[in-house]
Queue: 3 jobs
Job 1
Amino acid sequence: MRRRQFIELEDLPWWPQVFRDGVTDYLATSIRFTKIHRTVAPRLAAAIQRSGANRITDLCSGAGGPWSELLPELTTMGATPSLCLTDKFPNTRALSKLIAKIPQARFEAQPASATNMPEHLSGFRTLFTAFHHFEPNDAQAILQAAVRDRQGIAIFEGASRTPRALIFMLCIPLTVCLMTPLIRPFRWSRLFWTYILPVIPAAAMFDAIVSCLRMYTPEEMLTMARQVGDGVFDWEAGYDRTAGLPIRIPYLIGVPRRT
């Protein structure tokens, strides 16, 4: 399938925050339920240890993604970094709740650009289910910035650009309705926009379908990475499977070579 650069609702600056937070809250909850942290933790822990980093800077954090389970998992594997969560549109309610559970985590309250991270946000960079939001030039700029700053980077998506994944995304409204009672913190507005006027389920499905069409394959990510960091970074890319999903998830990992 050819990649399509369509627009997701959550990428629109005018998209109401209540809907944006509703979708990112659902995504964070679904990531936890699918146990994606168990799939990515071994690769991520190994990359962090190879890089020697003592801090992770998570880009495009949304509502926190897998970190409530992933950071403790990394600790059991010998990687004990601190964590800073960043986003262009920070979901401050969800991130405040998350860092209350994880002493070694904090979040940047100001909007942060994934293509131009300030020096005080240095650290091993991670992106979960977010790289596809960027057009090829901007996606490559994220990799270029990591190479320029000599910061390791790990990218994990939540779906792939395949017909099977597209069919799976048609089930999103049902999963939103099933998971909404489990999302915390509880908000009456979330119930209203899920069950009375189902904007959140519809938006989540629309964005999920568009996401599939925008996904990069491991080969495409690796080509971009080698164009900006061949010879100075070690790169690996491929597909992983997680027990909670019937689809493969693409990943790309880059670590600075020791000089």
Job 2
Amino acid sequence: MLDARTVDGFVYRVDMRLRPYGSSGALALNFASFEDYFYTQGREWERFAMIKARAITGLPADRAYLIEKIVQPFVYRRYPDYSSFEALREMKRLIKSEVHRKGGEQNIKLGNGGIREIEFIAQATQLIYGGRDQRLQDTGLQSVYSTLAEAEYLPGEWVKTLLETYRYLRDMEHGIQGFKDQQTQLLPQDQTAQSALVAAMQEDSWEVMIARMSDLRANVTAVFEDFLHEEGDASADQTESDYHWLQLWLDQDVTAEDWQAEFLRAGFDEPELCTKALMDLHELPRFRQMSASARDRFKEFLPRLLDTITESGACALTLERVLKVVQSVLGRTIYLVLLNENAEALRQLCKLCAESQWFADHIAATPVVLDDLLDPKSLYSPPPREALSDELRQSLLRIPEDDLEAQMDCLRNFKQSHMLRVAAAEISDVLPVMKVSDYLTWLAEACVEAAMEIAWRNLVQKHGYPSAKGRAIEPVDCAGFAVVGYGKLGGIELGYSSDLDMVFIYNAEDFGSTDGDKQINNQLFYTRLGQRLVHILGAQTTQGYCYEVDMRLRPSGNSGMLVSSLAAFEKYQHNDAWTWEHQALVRARFIAGDSALGGEFDRVRQDVLCKQRDLTDLLAEVAGMRQKMRLAAVDKLKSQEIADQNIKQGRGGLIDIEFITQYLILAYAQDYPELVRWTDNVRLLESLAATVDVPLEFAVLIDAYRALRSALHRKSLSGVSYPGGLNGFAKEREQVQRAFAELFKE
């Protein structure tokens, strides 16, 4: 009825060719058949087409199911999908061929720099990132371009150029089609139609209009070619070396000796290791089971990889490490497309893997961080502290509040991405070791804060807000709840593999209840909040875990309540805590939650640390605890000699410096309360140096602490212990041992 022609014309032209199986398919399919088609026979160009799909009739529930459960999962992939570039190039080639065959160079939609290229750029970017950023799941072209510019997926100048041209060409298209109600995008050839179009476009003349249109389309063509990383045909980038490596790979009769000879010719330092790494990959069952398209991607990738490593020093170890990353993505070769499409990303991957095994392990465990290699400027420049929480918050805003799994994956991807960036900055000497620990601590705090807010909103939605002092707590995130960081987290000294030592405190009436439909008492509410927070951070998902959480430093350890009331925490610290627990409190710091409660924790901490103490008993208890730790280290490492050389646990190592610091704080804070202001060892030692009169060289201890911390960081990144362990720091070790012996009378 819509497109039937009568004496009065027709209502709309109707095109049904986009249905499953095209013109040969049934006009109507049930949902199951529709879904089956997408997942068994859906083609890449159909993903582009379905970006604009919108249900316009039917029951609301059916319309939502069709789009959200069938169409969108087909269009948008969970991981960045760089195969869109391949599909885009292929569609562009087909369109060019068709335009050329039909003599349609004057087509403002399909020709170079036309409407279709503008649509393609937006759609390809939507397909790449839309699965991860739901703001891009938008059917409107102009609105999605605004998002692409705002979120910096595309340069702002590109978007400005594309939208200006799009609006001009769409106006022109309307003028062309409105002249005689024809479905065409070809520029008119007769003078009457040309004059009508000039008038519709409000231009001075045909020549002026064509000149402006040509300039705009030329700008679009330039953007389009930059977007595809090509000038003309992408295959032009293939070199003679690429072809040679590929021929060798495809040769069924090639031997290990042939590969070794080729690696030797190319200048690789260990041809045997290179050959073994490549052959081991080839023999993997996952490699042999790859689809034809995945094999094609690898065939394109391998020559590029070998050439890139050759250009950067032909190191066999680099090849071995990069191939470890490749093994991890054999089931998701879309990441190979990313590296094929972005030579700079491949160069950065090879550079980082050449520097350290840590990068190969990190990227292999979380391939999604390959996306961070696209921009070297940001890769080696982690954002400032204040930008971290904002960036994470913006990422979480793109996810529905009821999708906990996606929120947890977002936290993990965010953490792994920024950990890669800070490691890259450290390995390039952009950040010194102390700044690295600062940054890793800020990153953890941002993740803890976000996880806590997710857990809070989830519980409040179910149970309502808890009450305090006979009134409802103000409806703000995490009111009455505080997270206290201990250990390296509290001391702002996190490393790449550090877990999070935390204690949870709440401040509400134990017998009060929440104000929601499913009421529970306050204590249970905050206990569940703590449990959920630990789960969000520590549970294993498809993206791994965010952080391992250690709650053993809470009052009474593993046998104590997961969450303590402020009153119970204060009472425990004053009456029941061991001296080693007060040592731990020296490094404790409020990191997230209710800031007013954080202030109350600071008060309790100061009161406890500034207590009057018998210095003889204190000295004996701290020294006794250190001896227990030394014995435990020997038992764990199975050797006295190995324990003695351990940079952290050995005599003259990091723990000795920490015990010196903690003893002096507990001994002198009663007279100098300002000593407890800081929680990190360096500033604690600096405060002691400026305040107390003891025969210790604090500057020497600070230098030794920094040197040993730096060695531990290098070990984390390289995977190799410092040669000789503590023996490699003979001077520092001797100075720390002397200070420890003098203080503890050893």
Job 3
Amino acid sequence: MKAWHIRSPIHGHFESALFLNQSARAPDVSSLAPGQILIKVLSAAINPIDYKAFDSGWLGRNGIVAGASPGLDFCGRVLATHPLMASSLTSGNPKEGNLVFGSLAKAQKFGSLGEFMIVPQTECTALPEGVQPDDAAALGTAAGSALEAFPSHLFKPGGAVFINGGSGGVGTYAIQIAKLLGASRVVTACSTANVELCKSLGASEVLDYKSVDVIPELRRRGQVFDLVIDNVGTPGLWAHCDEYVKPGGGFVQVAATPSIGALLPILRYKLQSFLPGPKHRGFYFVMSKGGHERFEQLGGWLAEGKLKSVIGETFEFEDVPKAYEKLKKGHARGKIVIHVAKE
């Protein structure tokens, strides 16, 4: 099979470490463990987490396996299943020939940037009728992160939310999910080019960070938000959140680089909660939470037209490094999807 692999030894930047193996060993039925399925990948979505660990130095690279195929998010057709499959899934077991979509909980040897991959059946669900593979593949990590960013103890129907970075992969889903969960007001920030996009997704108000200094503007408004979701990692946004988040509200950080420099502030914020003295609003770091039931919910919203995937650009399989270059530049509109194989 064709598959993008990470070179050994592991060094340099992520894009330079990728190479297209035209004759990679494909997984087969004998490779499956109980509860796993073999999939032919049709579409895959890429995410910052794919390269952030690699580019962050020794800490992030510690768990990377040379020769593995990157990629977590996918949509594809089931080629085979292990005879021992879990029977607890609400929509039954995936069967040979079914189209499924989902996201791996962690990087594995056979990722979604290969023509064939192995997936735990608990990390995918059936593709709803009428939903396109690209749209379903885009959900995975980004929509899973967006849904996780609304903890029920912080956000209730009728609440107001500020979403920093509304036009990216997580942000485009977060705006829509906020409305689906009953937000009374959704304010977001993005660049001039994406203001109308964010409004079309349901944002009540959009701050153009090219013409408005966002943090002073939020501070000027006072304690009006129940929840702040930061998809960017903007310096100072957390430091001043007490001024624009209501008592009892919270701050959710989605974007973070797994480096010492990024982890220390998070640890410091957590330590503050145990020490005497003034306390900031609750700080929560979230990662994508997928799973069969979560993907059923997201896929159902897609099928019903309540949620849509904003796909900013698609790339052919041979152009994966170019796709990551585009993603790493930042300011990508929605999701980037790779066409891995044709039916």
